[in-house]
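Let's practice the habit of predicting before peeking. Look at the sequence and jot down your guess about where helices and strands might fall. Then scroll down.
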Amino acid sequence: MVRKRLMIVLFCIQFIVTGCWNRRELNELAIAVGMGIDKQGEQYKVSVQVVVPAEIAAKKSRGASPVILYSGVGDSVFEAIRKMTTESPRKIYISHLRILVLGEALARDGIGKSLDFLARDSEARSDFYIAVSKESNAEDILKVLTALDAIPANMLFTALETSQKAWAPTLSVTLDELIADLTSEGKNPVLAGITVHGNPGEGSTNTSVQKVDTPVRLQYTTLAVFRKDKLIGWLNEKESKGYNYIRDKVKSTAAVIPCPSGGKATLEVIRTKTKVKGRIIQGKPHIDINLRSEVNVDEVGCQIDLTKTKTISQLESLGEETMKKLIHEAVHTVQQKYKVDIFGFGEVIRRSNPKAWKKMKQDWDRYFMNLDVNVKADASIRQIGTVGNSFLGRIKE
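Done guessing? Here is the structure:
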């Protein structure tokens, strides 16, 4: 009896269970992995890098490019994408987007409106990274083929992750993080810059990646500074690294320091932790930055005795001064040159003293320009390498 009732229930359920009503067949879609947005007059020029499936599957490869670039111009980003169907035999599908490149001209004019479609569209995910093309159009970046990864957009995605983890002046930012900064009252956005070395037209051919010394390459550069949604300038390499120290984004990097007796040594930063606190003293905001780091001695180009505790302490002190200098330079440049809070100091003040923040937020840029920032750094050397003192001192001249 129970079995009969179960069969009746299952029979009834099949009428209310939905199927794949919105399914998409792969052979009907053009899968976009990279997108670029440029300004063309008062319109948007959107370029998408689409995977060519037959070229990715090695057995079916025809020796052609593994990706193809489609472009469209419209009064909105969505209109430009839909116009691409006049060229593409398949509908552009953006759910697998890996990188969004914003042209520098567009960024200086304002990126807010161009991002609304990606934030609103149900097919778009927000886990792709966003960068600004420096001194070039976004379309030129997406034209370039890459050697180590057949799909350039994948290379741009992983290269940004790798450089942030191992070098530090770059920064990976997703759409959600960018929108949070754009709408924040106490922080302005920054994005990684990307540039193309060589002729983009030459880089779009397979022959360019068949050479040992690739004539056209893509490279991430320093950070782009925004006032709300408009690009206003660029940090240099040291200032970009200082920014990431403040924002607790440094995973690992190299720090070159002067030796006590001349020459240089290189420390490998293996771990860092930054805490930023805010205070109000006599009606004025103050920021305290405390940086703790663990480092290894990775390269010694001077005459020092690493067996002595005093030498280790000297190297730690020099490492601390180097990190403090990077942070001070970044803060000073932004305060004096760009006059916008990209570090989130306003958010720190808001959390520490909401009442004072209500009075300051309308004129925070002025407060930020005169903000006192106190930096403390503590570096601890964990390892000196597999050898003791450098062999350089034993080389006979």
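How did you do? The chain has a mean pLDDT of 91.
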